[in-house]
Amino acid sequence: METLIETPKKTRRSFPELVYERWGGVTYYRKGYSDVLKNQKKPADIMGAGGLQSFVVSYIHGVIFGAIDRQTYRLLISEPGLHIGTKENLACDVMVYERAVLTNDKITTKYVDIPPLVAIEVGVKVELKNTALPSSSCV
C-alpha cells in the first residue's frame, strides 16, 4: 500500500514591522524590506533611525519647542502614530496639537486619531521605488 506524504506548502512570511506607513491606499515599506524577505537582512537591521534622521528631527524639535506657547500647544515627538482612517496610519516624527483639542483624556496607548495642526515626518529610510504617490499627496 502506497502512502502519500503531503509536503507542507511554503507560507509567505509576514513582517508588519516592515510597513513604514499606509496612506491614500498605498503601503510604503521601509528601505531594505526586500532584503529582509530574501533572508539577507533581519528586520532589526532596517528599523532604527540613523544619525541623519535623528539630527534633523532633534533640530526641528528644538526649534518648535523654543518657539511655541507650551501652555496652548502640545508637542508630540518620538514617532507618535496618527490614525486617519481605515488602513490609513502615519508615523510622524513631530506633531503639534492645541491642548484644547488633544486633551489629557484623549492621550492613550493607541494611535492618536485627532488631526494635528502640524505633522512632520523625516523619511530618510522609506522605499519609494515602484510606488506611486496617492493623488491626495501633499509631498
How do the strands and helices of this protein lay out in sequence?
Elements: E1 19-23, E2 26-30, H1 33-37, H2 43-47, H3 51-67, E3 73-77, E4 81-85, E5 88-91, E6 94-98, E7 118-120, E8 126-127
Number of DSSP-assigned strands: 8
Tally of separate helices: 3
What proportion of the residues is helical, as a percent range? 10-25%
Low-confidence stretches: none
Distance between the termini: 66 Å
- Please provide the ordered H/E string of secondary-structure elements: EEHHHEEEEEE
Structural class based on helices, strands and sheet pairing? alpha+beta
Summed over residues and divided by their number, the pLDDT gives a mean of: 80
Shape: globular
User: What is the gyration radius calculated from CA atoms?
Assistant: 20 Å
Estimate the strand proportion: 15-25%
Biggest beta-sheet profile: 3 strands, antiparallel
Biggest sheet strand line-up: 1-2-8
Structural account:
The protein is an alpha+beta fold. 19% of the residues lie in helices and 24% in strands. The protein has three helices and eight strands; from the N terminus they run ββαααββββββ. The chain has helices at 33-37, 43-47, 51-67; strands at 19-23, 26-30, 73-77, 81-85, 88-91, 94-98, 118-120, 126-127. It has a three-stranded antiparallel beta sheet with strand order 1-2-8, with no helix packed on it. Strands 3-6-7 form a three-stranded antiparallel beta sheet, with helices on one face. Strands 4-5 form a two-stranded antiparallel ribbon. A hairpin with a 2-residue loop joins strand 4 and strand 5. The termini are far apart. 11% of the residues are buried.
